[in-house]
Amino acid sequence: MVDKSRNSKALMVQGTSSYCGKSIFVAAFCKIFKDAGYKVAPFKAQNMSLNSYVTENGEEIARAQALQAFACGIEPTSDMNPILLKPKGDTISQIVLHGKPYKDISAKDYYSEFALNEGIKSVKSSLSSLMKNYDLIFIEGAGSPVEINLYEKDISNMRVAELANAPVLLVTDIDRGGAFASLVGTLELLKPKHKRLVKGFIINKFRGQSMLLEQGLKKLEKITGKPVIGIVPYIQDLTLPDEDSMSLERDFYYDDNKANIAIIRLPRISNFTDFDPLELEESINVQYVKSVRELGVPDAVIIPGTKNTIQDLFWLKEKGLAKEIVRLAKLEIPIFGICGGYQIIGKKIIDRKGIEGGRPGEFEGLGLLDVVTEFFEYDKMTRRVTAEIFANSPILNPSIRKTFSGYEIHMGKTSLGKDAKPAFRIIKRGDDQVDDFDGAVDNTGLILGTYIHGIFDEPPVRRCLIDYLMKNKRIKSRNKAIKDIREEWMRSLNQFANIVKNSLDMNRICEIIGIPPIK
Asked: What is the largest CA-CA distance in the chain?
């Protein structure tokens, strides 16, 4: 158990699988109960995600917990996600502990050495801190609570429910099929003491008439002895950040009536939520590509962030994409590199200690920008920034004189050669007023790199890029121009929270938590 000197209460949302809706349900509950007058916070003990966010204190957490904090009307902190795992390869992940890089570790060593030692201590510390300061904690589980090979070492699910004395709601995605079997099977594999913590089921993403489920629901309740708290319909067109790269697996097409932006689908792609604002622009068609055939001749190419710059550079060369991107650059197709993508389009990456790629050496980049990146130590820049456009190029227009916000999450330092000039001026980093530069452009102004994540979230750079592409392609913009991506998130979150409130038995949920009914 953890210290709950505020006498706070908790509810945990677990799932029968990954990608079944745990994150968004926690966000919805946060919004619903915050609006009901409670002081609410989210919590996820351990998240494996390459989509991250930087807090006001320069701490790195999963983007999902940041969204949940926004739903609570509070600023995110690392206590909401004390352990973030960022995969660097098939078996190695970086542990971000309390918002800071801790070490790279294999899956085997994570469970044998870290989870039940430093890991669970960190979980207890963060959970105690939240429960001292908030009335209600909504906790998100990870994956499935019954991965039987990991059950005894799992610090993300039932062990957390026990620490917080939290009842559990189990969510399943009926759209993927096998929902009833998943619920029954999950419950069957739980230990008796953990089975007792499960207080009900939520059926998510149902298409059709709920009356068609009545017989199945009755049998489910009879078999398990657990109630179905509600059925939530399948909802399309929610604008919310995805946590899982599964969302990038979709049909590929180019649209002649729009500007087509090809984003390279790197194997270790990170922070692909950077491009959500582009996808909302009606004049833009965003496609994730992973072969020369798919790449074709787009109107612009973006190389995104990556958790392993050097390995993904090798992949680009092996797939023939590196050579093709260079060819497109010669055709004056704009090439935009963000974070690891910025490092990749430079001349050289120097990693003498093997910090980034796992093996020491000097590696030739794509050579599109006259910059060199060097990894000196196992340290990471994680700060929020406010910046303005500095370079005057066909894409960037400094006369806009509007600032924009973003955040840096990167290892390595990049130096500019004589044929590169800074792209942006940073005027604030964290709480400090600064006069610094970020990124680079080449002499044509069509090759651009930056370390700023979230660069398209606000209008200035996004509008510059879109206006250039529209003019270059000679098509008219049909903009449903968005302002700030966070406004779009909150609009969708409000929509989903209202649907959840109307679809679930909220009185039953309040009873499960142990609080009076809400209006």
From this structure: 74
